[in-house]
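Budget justification note: compute hours in this period were largely spent on complex prediction jobs such as the one shown. Inputs:
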Amino acid sequence: MTVTQDSATQNGALLEVRGLETHFKAGTKGIIFGIGAIKQTVRAVDGVNLSIQKGETLGLVGESGCGKSTLGYTILQLESATAGEVFYDGHRLTGLKSGEMRPFRQKMQIIFQDPHAALDPRMTIGQAVGEPLSVHGIVAKDEVEDKVEELLATVGLNPYFKNRYPHEFSGGQQQRIVIARALSVEPEFIVCDEPISALDVSIQAQIINLLEELQDQFGLTYLFISHDLRVVRHISDRVAVMYLGKVVEQGQIDALHDNPLHPYTQALLSSVPIPNPALAKTRKRIILEGDVPSPIDPPSGCRFRTRCPIAVERCAEEEPLFREARDNHWVACHLA
Amino acid sequence: MVNTVLSVENLETHLASREGAIKAVNDVSFQVEQGETLGIVGESGSGKTMTALSVMGLVPNPPGRIVGGRVELDGEAITELSDKELRERRATKMGMVFQDPATSLNPTMKVGPQIAETMQVHLGYNEATARKRAIEILDRVGIPSAESRYYDYPFQFSGGMRQRAMIAIAVSCDPLLLIADEPTTALDVTVQAQLLDLVRDLKEERGTSVIWITHDLGVIAELCDRVAVMYAGFIVETAPVQEIFENPKHRYTSLLLRALPSMERREADRLESIVGLPPHLANLKPGCPFAPRCDGPVDRCTEENPALAEMGPSHYAACWNPLNGNTAGMGEES
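Corresponding output:
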């Protein structure tokens, strides 16, 4: 299948993902001497279609191991896709050499979950934020200092602290430093990979607010990966729900919350504890049984069928198509 | 009549550090009645885990030490028991579940025997009885085909199943009190929902009291009867669960509630956030520890630390300038 540049840009999407697959070679299982080993493949991302409009926040939710981070990395070409295509602003990223990818690296940034691990402990925060400026030649050498101070102020840190080291800052402040570093190259698109999961509730709100303010200020586009549905609800315009390497539902945030079509989305939403004791004790909850199956050997047909409360025979035989069930509301389920 | 299972009075736990004593638990008092679930909520470093460890007699020493106060479990002062007696009480009267089931289970020992061992040691069961009973418990906590999984190693269990196994060990000797420290934090929401359901059922079946420690106000709302909010090692507010959510008196509680994104609707506005950071527990300044981040401080706040005062029926808050909720509190100051 070949896709021309034109058709990719036609719908005005900044980012377009088509049939993306990222498979990893896993260790071997059942080594039998004399016979050899059974090779295994982890199908982390297994046929994902997505598009993100400019200035939009797409929330990506799912449980651990569903492939949401791998999808984020593959979009940024930090992992290489085993099949499928990623288009950024009409340009095909999949298959680019690392040198060819470089101009896009400046436009596409990422914020990781653990800011402590994302910062070099031996670099001052000024150096950390300044390095991408020199690497990409964003500003002249003698202006780097000023730009660093400006960036630190933008994320709500006192520029006076630029000569300090990461360990002198709290988790929330470290995440601000990571955000400043991502912003330094003036990106258009940022993958936020669980950016607040490691932070306390009172600090989470500060970082969410900062991300929203920056989006307004610089017209940023976010892919916001999180397992916290409350936060995703707050920050996203649209949301995609992943299960075992596939997107099972996608839609406008309100439509998806008010009227979830996929049984997995329904269960996921009803599992979120609500901070309202009166409501918590009366509402109907769908409790799924068991755990997520292994992405090495996913169930036949619909991957959710082994935990689905309404599965029928057809679900084991035939994989449901990802179809537009309502206006702009897509779902992969035979019964929805 | 109500039977107090656990009573903690003026507990003080300090940790030695180069910068001086870190006051992790400060003048903490609370009771847990039979069959009651007390939720302890707070951010990292608020002293909730140290409070639990103090109750269990598991404060790592050094650097930690209980420097004051009294903990009474079922009418017996825990703080005065020998190590041997404590170990026995921990099995038969207290069950514990920690955050990370992977590090709580012995990786070199099969799961079933770890449960059976507890009963052999503390209840004097012989091996066959203990095994039979362990399989029953595994089945009860929702491990599928418990009989064959009995001989699995912990690594063969998923995170949710390991935590179920931990719960199985904790309840194997039918304790009066179950202490759970962030047991669902490392788990996915769908698995968390399964475990909350399990604990609710077990509690009802056995009349066990529960102390549930979490940073998630949603979990508190789902599970608890009463809540204690901790900040900087102090209990700053305690009330029945409904009351905390509908009529918080302490400004920290209120800000914490407002900082949570809502699941019911999408607000266009920014979230309310709490400015600044929690104080360093080695050098607490005089006055209320929350004063520097508070949205309604008065002069007195920086001078004198408020004690818990009655704000309504079973509702106590330590605040010089409490919020006026809709329901009239008794003895309200403003």
